[in-house]
Structures are given as C-alpha cells and as structure tokens.
C-alpha cells in the first residue's frame, strides 16, 4: 500500500513537471498544432510514412512561415530565417545528431560532420574539385557529354520509343558522378548490366523506416531487428560498397577527380571510400530524381508550350555553351523549385545564448530547420501560383533578386551543396541532348499517382519508382 502511494506521488510529480515544462516553454509563442507542445510522435509518424515534407508544409500553409512542429523543434520558411539558420557566421548553426543516420562505414563525411570547424576542415580538402572552374574544364565536361550521348543511344534502342526515365536517368547520374569521382575507374551503367545493378542498389533503397527506428530508439531496434527486416530492411549495398572500396584504392586517377584530391590528404582508405560513397549516393539520387520529375512535368500537355520553347532555343543555338541558354536555365531553376531533389528539413541546433528568428526567441538547443519544398512556395508574392510550373518567372527581372534569395534547392551558406555546379551541368547537358532531338510525352501506362513524391528525406523519388515516357524523334511527323 505504501509503495503504491509512493509510485502514485512520483507519477503525479512527473506529470506536473512535464506539464509545467510544456506550458512554460518559450516556444509556446510560436503558432502550431496544440499537440506539438507535448509530443513529437505525430511528426515521427509522418516521417515513418515518408510524408514529413508534405506534413510540415501543410502546417506552414495553416500557421504561416514560422511553426512549432514538436516540443523542441520549429520550422521556418522565410528568407530571413534561412539566412539566420544557415548563413550566420558563414556556415550557420551546427547540425544535429540526426545526420548520424547518414554516416558511411561508421565514418563521418563532410555531409555528416556536426560542427562548423570539422566541416570547414573537410570542405577545404574537397572544394576545388567542385568549383565551377573545374567542372567546366574539358576533361570533366567531355565526360558528361559522352554519358549524355549514351543516354540518347539508350533512348534510340527502345523498340517502341518508351523509356523508363527513373532507371535511365539514375544510370546517367551514376555514370556522371563516378566519372567526376574516379575517372578512369568510374561506372558505365548505361552500357553495362553489371554496373546498372550497382545503381539499382542505391536508387531503389528502401531502408528509411529501419534507419529512423535505429536513430530514435536503438534499444527497440535491436529487440525487433530480425522481425523488422521483413517489413523494413536495413540499408544493404554490397555491390556499391565493393565498387567504391575498389575504385577509391586507385593511385592514378585523373587530375580533375575528387579521388586525386583525396589521395593527397592525411586520410586512411576507409575515410576516402566513405567520402566518395557519400558523394556517389548523393549524386545518383539528387540529379536522377530532379531530372526525372522535371522531364515528367515537361512532358505533360500543360507544359507543351514550355517544351516547344526550350526546343526552339536549343535548335536556334546549337553551339552555345550550356550555361548561356536563358530558357534552359529557367527550365532547370523552375524544376528545382517545384521538385527539390532534397526535400528534407535541414535540422540545426540554436547556438548558446539562444537566437531570435522572425521575431520569435528560441533558447539554445532548440532544433530549427527549413525545407526547400516550403521555402519555394510560402511566399506567394515572390512565387505567385507556387504550385504551377512556370519557367518564365525566372526570366522576369522584376522580383528576380527575391526569388533567388528564396531559392533553397542546394541549401545556403557554407554548408550548402558542394556539388551544385556539377549537378547543374549534368542536368542542362542532358536536357539539351534530349530536347534537341526528341519530343517527350507520357506513356499510356503511367498514372499521375506513380509520380507522387515519396519522401526519403535525403531524396524525393517517384512513388511508383518508374517514369515511362515516349520519346518521339523530331521530324517523325509527330514533333509539333
């Protein structure tokens, strides 16, 4: 009886303490759903269902650009918030432990380093290989051009003109990024079935739920690991591992490659392999998914005029550099705005002493983030008709500065995407190769539901994991 009373008093004390802490939190000034004061389970439920991005966006639509999404977490979608969180002090706030989900071989890569100092040291090792001056050099661009040609060859080999973009664009991205990482030891998945299997391991990975459970509750993950394997497999990429471990051991890569740069640093082989695999996976998913959604959109009847205008520009300027074609650039910018390849919130810790963001004080240790999907849509003054694919908006000088200030597809600040210039070159050169020679339309076997966004946090692939388009050669009588 006495022990029961003690337990009851202890339970009451814990409940009162919990309520007092919840009701007195400085985050209570932030708008948001009532339950966000007390639990993060709703947010985690949407993460496990691969719907975090759309859920957070729905909260922004209901509550505005600043919203509380969990007891110690807030999301922001304004340009001023993005600048504060990701650019203040050069690299913004430090990352949270969430990035431990993406460690490779147990090592932290540039992407998964948590504090600014460690990140800056690693970035200094790598940055020159991704500088635009290196990307546009002949050895790098020739490699991308050759792979775009191989992609076109695959399209021409299709007997009925139907191409699965999801597979072929990820093969293209895989071959391009490994050329930049390892040449002459890169992959050739557009011509090799063996290499295509490596790409499929990465692009078709379904380990999100398994990794989330391991992160949020390692003990439970250990207890139910074998049972969980049936429904949510861990990340298993033995073919990709073998490829990267082998390629990264090469001692004579081409001078423009990342491996050449890493071989001159004080890193052991596993550190080099981990960094390369991280870049390879990112390069496959972001470029492959981004192009896939963009070409699907360009193939819709509503975008027929956009596709024709792009074709007209390409055919009128056959020798122009890929980065000197205004409408091609507008097409890519609008594609990345509507379909950001990395949809995830990018969580950071508020630094010591706390900070004020968009008029709200947030104590140190609060998790804050922005996601490109919402930053690209919430401000309807900068982006009127935000859900409409309208490339022409990027050609309008009025409001251009604000639109570009809100562009967040590659993140911002010192920790923004280091591969931005390489990704843009791959996208533009592929689009030029395709739309100079073909018109694309959806295959009858595709449904719009197949192209719903499946939010894998660090990638956003089509739900159906396929994208069937019909490639109609120009001059065939169906190109108008």
From TrEMBL:
Q: Which UniProt keywords apply?
A: Heme, Iron, Metal-binding, Signal
Q: What are the recorded GO MF terms, alphabetically?
A: heme binding; iron ion binding; monooxygenase activity; oxidoreductase activity, acting on paired donors, with incorporation or reduction of molecular oxygen
Necessary cofactors:
heme
N-terminal signal peptide = 1-24
- Protein known as: Cytochrome P450 3A13
Q: Which SUPFAM superfamilies does the UniProt entry name for this protein?
A: Cytochrome P450
Q: Does the keyword Iron apply?
A: yes
Q: Does the keyword Metal-binding apply?
A: yes
* Residues the entry annotates as binding heme: 417
């Amino acid at each position: 009886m006495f022990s029961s009373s003690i337990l009851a008093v202890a339970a009451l004390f814990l409940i009162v303490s919990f309520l007092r802490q919840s009701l007195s939190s400085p985050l209570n000034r932030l708008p948001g759903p009532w339950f966000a004061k007390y639990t993060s389970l709703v947010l985690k439920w949407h993460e496990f269902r691969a719907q975090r991005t759309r859920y957070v966006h729905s909260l922004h639509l209901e509550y505005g650009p600043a919203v509380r999404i969990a007891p110690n977490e807030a999301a922001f979608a304004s340009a001023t918030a993005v600048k504060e969180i990701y650019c203040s002090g050069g690299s913004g706030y430090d990352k949270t432990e969430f990035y431990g989900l993406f460690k490779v071989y147990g090592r932290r890569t540039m992407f998964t380093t948590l504090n600014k100092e460690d990140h800056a040291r690693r970035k200094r090792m790598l940055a020159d290989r991704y500088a635009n001056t290196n990307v546009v050099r002949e050895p790098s661009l020739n490699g991308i051009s050759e792979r775009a040609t191989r992609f076109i060859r695959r399209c021409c080999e299709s007997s009925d003109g139907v191409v699965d973009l999801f597979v072929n664009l990820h093969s293209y991205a895989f071959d391009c990024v490994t050329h930049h990482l390892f040449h002459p030891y890169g992959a050739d998945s557009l011509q090799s079935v063996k290499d295509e299997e490596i790409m499929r391991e990465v692009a078709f990975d379904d380990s999100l739920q398994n990794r989330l459970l391991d992160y949020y509750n390692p003990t439970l993950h250990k207890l139910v690991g074998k049972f969980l394997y049936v429904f949510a497999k861990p990340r298993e990429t033995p073919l990709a591992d073998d490829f990267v471990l082998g390629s990264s051991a090469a001692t004579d890569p081409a001078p423009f490659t990342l491996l050449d740069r890493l071989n001159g640093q004080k890193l052991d082989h596993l550190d080099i392999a981990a960094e390369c695999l991280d870049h390879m996976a990112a390069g496959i998913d972001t470029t492959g998914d981004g192009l896939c959604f963009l070409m699907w959109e360009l193939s819709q009847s509503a975008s027929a005029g956009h596709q024709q205008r792009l074709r007209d520009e390409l055919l009128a300027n056959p020798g122009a550099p890929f980065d000197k074609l205004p409408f091609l650039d507008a097409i890519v910018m609008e594609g990345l705005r509507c379909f950001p390849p990395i949809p995830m919130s990018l969580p950071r810790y508020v630094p010591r002493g706390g900070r004020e963001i968009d008029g709200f004080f947030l104590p140190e240790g609060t998790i804050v983030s922005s996601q490109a999907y919402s930053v690209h849509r919430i401000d309807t003054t900068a982006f009127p008709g935000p859900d409409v694919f309208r490339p022409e908006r990027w050609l309008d000088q009025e409001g251009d500065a604000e639109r570009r200030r809100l562009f967040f597809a590659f993140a911002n600040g010192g920790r923004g995407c280091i591969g931005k210039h390489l990704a843009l070159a791959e996208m533009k050169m592929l689009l030029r190769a395709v739309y100079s020679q073909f018109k694309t339309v959806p295959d009858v076997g595709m449904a719009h539901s197949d192209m719903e966004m499946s939010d894998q946090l660090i990638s956003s692939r089509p739900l159906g994991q396929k994208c069937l388009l019909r490639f109609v050669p120009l001059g065939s009588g169906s190109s108008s």
